[in-house]
Design a protein that fits this description.
about 0% strand; mainly alpha; two-stranded antiparallel ribbon; DNA-binding; Arc Repressor Mutant, subunit A
DNA sequence: GTATATGATTCTCA
DNA sequence: TGAGAATCATATAC
């Protein structure tokens, strides 16, 4: 007799079903000789199906009868035997799966974006960094920042609530299956290892749902991020005063318009923009100036005149303030606020004004040049080694500004 | 609506 | 890493 037949014949006698006594080998033989095993199986299945419609009490009673059946130990041992054989085929399944790389990627991303993990940092930090890079007015940045944070918090909330539901459903189903298995373990051999494996299978099934949840959350974050980044691309022109400050610096350092980090910071502060925006501005300005010097001549003239007028005003104030005996005793540079502190002497500057208003740009190169060791400084003249003639920024060859000067062309 | 100006981004290079 | 160069995308002027 094969295992299945043994099992089935064993089952026919269980549960108080109206079957011949299977405990009696003669009876079984009689049955088989009658050629009715197929019919019996059909009947048994019918009866099993009917069990679901029976009342709980009846089912309990049958279960009790089954547990107390004198054939139970025999059936159990048969099942154990079958199990012993079949367990070999499922051994491979028992090996632990490595963590799904896709889930790991999603987890890392959600963590980095601040959706999972601790509430602080992550996304808000990313938003802060992005907002800082966005530039514009601080108010705008903070509005965008808070908007981003609010939306991210919303995503986070939905994610956690869905995750909670998922975990609850998963644990409920697992418990249910475990209870069923425990229950069944009274009538068939189920090892704790098997229960564990079953739980793992359930978790695997559920993890695909979890993956979907994580994936859609990531997508939502990506969409939010791209919208936020798109918003960053929305360009706003700097205000007039900021542009003037930058232009003043640029044209007054035309021989070497590469502000140092300190100068950039100072300019950024003065203009109400970020240091990277200052860098962008100078990068764009240098390229565009170089490409079309002619076009910028007018602008250069404008700033030359402006700086000359400013300087004249400063000199007038200085001569009023200073002793009449020393009319040219070193006023500070007024080309731009960033130049203040440079001993841009009136003599040098007067000549600068006269020359450059008559012959602009070609002579107006900004920066300071020491007059043959005299200690007096005049604006630089454009020379062959100037940045405008080379692809790369000039090496640090321009004359150093006076001590304490903030000019980058003298310090970098 | 089109041309131009301009701030930002991306890529390459030293 | 900073700069040049090309390019994108938007603002602004007409």
């Amino acid at each position: 007799m094969d295992d299945q037949t043994r099992m089935m014949t064993g089952l026919t006698g269980l549960g108080g079903l109206p079957q011949p006594d299977v405990g009696d080998p003669d009876s079984v033989r009689k049955q088989q000789s009658l050629g009715q095993p197929q019919q019996d199986i059909g009947d048994i299945l019918q009866q099993i199906m009917a069990i679901t419609d029976e009342s709980l009490d009846e089912a309990q009673a049958r279960k009790h009868a089954l547990n107390c059946h004198r054939m139970k130990p025999a059936l159990f041992s048969v099942l154990c035997e079958i199990k012993e054989k079949t367990v070999l085929s499922i051994r491979g399944v028992q090996e632990e799966d490595p963590p799904d790389p896709q889930i790991m990627r999603l987890d890392n991303m959600l963590l980095a974006e601040g959706v999972s993990g601790p509430e602080k940092g992550g996304g808000s930090a990313a938003a802060a960094a992005a907002a800082a890079a966005a530039g514009g007015s601080p108010t705008d940045s903070s509005i965008e920042h808070s908007d981003y944070r609010a939306k991210l918090a919303q995503i986070r909330q939905i994610y956690h609530s869905e995750l909670e539901k998922y975990e609850q459903a998963c644990s409920e189903f697992t418990n249910h299956v475990m209870n069923l298995l425990r229950e069944q373990s009274r009538t068939r051999p189920i090892s704790p290892k098997e229960i564990e494996r079953m739980v793992a299978i359930i978790h695997r099934k559920f993890s695909s749902i979890q993956m979907q949840l994580k994936q859609s959350t990531c997508e939502a974050v990506m969409i939010l991020r791209s919208r936020f980044l798109d918003a960053r691309r929305k360009r706003r022109n700097f205000n007039k005063q900021a542009t003037e400050v930058l232009n003043e610096y640029f044209y007054s350092h035309l021989s070497n318009p590469y502000p140092s980090e300190e100068a950039k910071e100072e300019l950024a502060k003065k203009c109400g923009i970020t240091v990277s925006q200052v860098s962008n501005w100078f990068g764009n300005k240098r390229i565009r100036y170089k490409k079309n010097i002619g076009k910028f001549q007018e602008e250069a003239n404008l700033y030359a005149v402006k700086t000359a007028v400013d300087a004249a005003n400063v000199s007038a104030q200085a001569s009023q303030a200073n002793s009449p005996a020393t009319p040219n005793s070193g006023t500070t540079c007024s080309i731009s606020s960033t130049c203040r502190g440079c001993p841009f002497l009136l003599t040098g500057f007067t000549s600068y004004t006269q020359v450059d208003t008559l012959h602009p740009v070609t002579h107006l190169t900004g920066g300071y040049e020491e007059l043959s060791g005299s200690g007096l400084y005049t604006p630089h003249r454009l020379d062959a080694n100037s940045w405008q003639d080379t692809t790369n920024p000039p090496s640090v060859t321009s004359p150093p500004g006076p001590p304490g000067s903030v000019h980058s062309d003298t310090s970098n």
